Sequence to fold (115 residues):
Amino acid sequence: MKTKLIIKPAIVSMLLLALLGGRAQASDTKELWDKTCAACHGKDGRGDTKMGKKVDVKDYTDPKFQAEYKDDKGIKTIKEGITEKGKERMKAYADKFSDEEIKALAAHVRTFKKP
Ligand code: HEC
Fold:
């Protein structure tokens, strides 16, 4: 009986830690987005920013965009950036972020989809 009383809180706190851990990762990705990507794409993914208008980013809440968006292409874009006619529209982030982070950022783009 005594051991049971000790084990239960231990299990509960382990579950809590697992939950919090998962959440911390998700907010890290959002933090990366807000710090690094939002200057153009906007915190809400709409691209309604001064820089975003200058480089002409798309509205990532647009269902048409979301229907065509593929993580694989997103990952490639984040790694290699976009340069058109010798002008850089988006930087390459392959050296700045780990593969894990880039994968999470590419997935983050899908969270802007309107319900
Ligand atoms: C200097 C402005 C700028 C910044 C900063 C920027 N981007 Fe972009 N990004 C663009 C432009 C321009 C495009 C091409 C047009 C579009 O898809 O909106 C683009 C396209 C993309 C795409 C491709 C979407 C598709 O069609 O597959 C992804 C994914 C993306 N950006 C993610 C990011 C992430 C993640 C960051 C931060 C690490 C970031 N961007 C930072 C300008 C920027």
Summary: The pocket of heme C is lined by residues 36-37, 39-41, 51, 55-58, 69, 73-74, 77-78, 82, 89-90, 93, 105-106, 109 (CB under 6 Å). The two ends are 49 Å apart (CA to CA). Helices lie at 2-41, 50-55, 63-68, 71-80, 99-110.
